[in-house]
Amino acid sequence: MKKIIITIDGYSSCGKSTLAKQLARELDYVYIDSGAMYRAITLYFIQNRVDWANSAAVAEALTNIQLEFEYDELHHEQASMYLNGENVEPLIRDMVVADKVSEVAAIREVREFAVAQQQQMGEKKGIVMDGRDIGTTVFPHAELKIFMTADTAIRVERRFRELYAKNKNITLQEVKENLELRDYIDSNREISPLRKAADAIILDNSQLSMDEQLQLALQWVEDATMVQSS
Length: 230
Ligand code: CDP
Ligand code: CDP
Hints:
- The protein has eleven helices and eight strands.
- By secondary structure, the protein is of the alpha/beta class.
- The chain has one domain (5-216): Rossmann fold (3-Layer(aba) Sandwich).
- A hairpin with a 2-residue loop joins strand 4 and strand 5.
- Helix 2 (34-47) crosses helix 7.
């Protein structure tokens, strides 16, 4: 089958990365977690006390940031994020980063820095990338665009369970506030706000199991690939 670009955008914690990994595994594609890049940049800004209200300071800091993904052998599973040679995977998932990432991701220089790298990663096709602006800005000509959503209460519950397994001090309220704040900032920022691309297919997985969401998406991939090769 001809390799295409698959974009998955949507609100926080609705299952984008879960579906992206499932598809990468099934199709033998490369999975790219664009959110991890914004999280790693945010971590760098926090650790180095970068004043991100100051665009000169942001531009200077970005020249010192090198981002890389490390993959499992087949490129599908856990892609650890490396920041300047260091595996920052657990750190970037922490609430300290989650609390600031949407602010940092709204900065023009930060988006230009990340988007340029993301576009390069798609040059050979055969990728599935998840994020907020992948179908609208990063790959506006992608062959298959999915826009995921799920009820807020379900998304909060899903993310809470994930974080609670690692940190028993986390509260449902804290997770809810973080999700709602990020969704608000991400949807209302000036540059590349979270929007459904006009040609994206909506996938509401509130009531879907992981397998059901995969089967639906695989059908869309088949359709998109057929259009592609016809
Ligand atoms: O996993 P979750 O959906 O909670 O977030 P993520 O995909 O790791 O993204 C973290 C944050 O990075 C988002 O809330 C956005 O502020 C930002 N982001 C973005 O602006 N554009 C993207 N393509 C991906 C993430
Ligand atoms: O990438 P995003 O933030 O959109 O979400 P995720 O990290 O893929 O999924 C958030 C949580 O929802 C994970 O713990 C998934 O296992 C879970 N999930 C689910 O329970 N049912 C689905 N149909 C999809 C994801």
